[in-house]
């Protein structure tokens, strides 16, 4: 039997609160409510906009929200752009939990940016801007402290496409799976790979950090 919306929200809240505690993050009750409202909006719009293949709310809580929040300790900079944000991931969960950081969420899919703009309006997120553009056509002024990507492209392609978005000492933060040897071998610059654990999810994740990618040579 399908759970009623109230029960489903309660179960999702438990998953989020437990996961946030495991990640040792400082998140308020209001922010948890915003995260739950975000899940509800994804579910509502998903039928028409095909935002995600994940349909179950509890799986969204784990594989979208907690997956995004797992990188909070490694997020750096005051101005961050999330490239290929899709349904607003990881940008929306990060913006909710890091209200002092300014986020730009960019995607080339107009339906998805319309959805993300609606999320920003309904959740009253003052620290989020939404941009509908291809990354290579977007030339912001000023540039960003960090570029963030999740399931966007291969590392060499990400470097080539996003270097122009960053300040001189900016960083690229790419959320990836664990099979990265071939991609990493093509990047001849200072980089680090940080293992990331997602509470309640049997998935392998890592965060690749590349310093000053405008100076990176891709072999």
From TrEMBL:
S-adenosyl-L-methionine binds at residues 84, 89, 135-136, 150. It is found in: Cytoplasm. Its main location: cytoplasm. InterPro entries: rRNA_ssu_MeTfrase_G, SAM-dependent_MTases_sf. Keywords: Cytoplasm, Methyltransferase, rRNA processing, S-adenosyl-L-methionine, Transferase. One of its GO terms (molecular function) is rRNA (guanine-N7-)-methyltransferase activity. GO terms for cellular component: cytosol. It catalyses: guanosine(527) in 16S rRNA + S-adenosyl-L-methionine = N(7)-methylguanosine(527) in 16S rRNA + S-adenosyl-L-homocysteine. Its EC number is 2.1.1.170. It is an enzyme of class 2 (transferase). Pfam families: GidB. Specifically methylates the N7 position of guanine in position 527 of 16S rRNA. Belongs to the methyltransferase superfamily. RNA methyltransferase RsmG family. This is Ribosomal RNA small subunit methyltransferase G. It comes from Methylobacter tundripaludum. The lineage of its organism: Bacteria, Pseudomonadati, Pseudomonadota, Gammaproteobacteria, Methylococcales. The gene is rsmG.
């Amino acid at each position: 039997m399908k759970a009623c919306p109230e029960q489903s929200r309660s179960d999702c809240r438990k998953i989020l609160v437990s996961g946030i505690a495991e990640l040792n993050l400082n998140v308020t009750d209001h922010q948890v409510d915003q995260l739950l409202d975000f899940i509800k909006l994804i579910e509502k719009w998903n039928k028409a906009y095909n935002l995600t293949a994940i349909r179950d709310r509890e799986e969204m809580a784990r594989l979208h929200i907690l997956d995004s929040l797992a990188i909070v300790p490694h997020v750096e900079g005051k101005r961050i752009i999330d490239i290929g944000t899709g349904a607003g991931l990881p940008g929306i969960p990060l913006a909710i939990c890091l209200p002092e950081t300014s986020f730009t969420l960019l995607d080339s899919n107009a339906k998805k940016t319309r959805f993300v703009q609606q999320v920003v309006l309904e959740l009253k997120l003052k620290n989020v801007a939404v941009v509908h553009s291809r990354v290579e056509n977007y030339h912001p002024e000023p540039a960003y402290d960090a570029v963030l990507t999740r399931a966007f492209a291969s590392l060499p392609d990400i470097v080539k496409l996003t270097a122009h978005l960053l300040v001189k000492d900016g960083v690229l933060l790419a959320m990836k799976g664990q099979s990265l040897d071939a991609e990493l071998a093509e990047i001849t610059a200072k980089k680090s790979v940080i293992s990331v654990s997602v509470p309640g999810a049997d998935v392998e994740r890592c965060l690749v950090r590349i310093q000053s990618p405008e100076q990176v040579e891709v072999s």
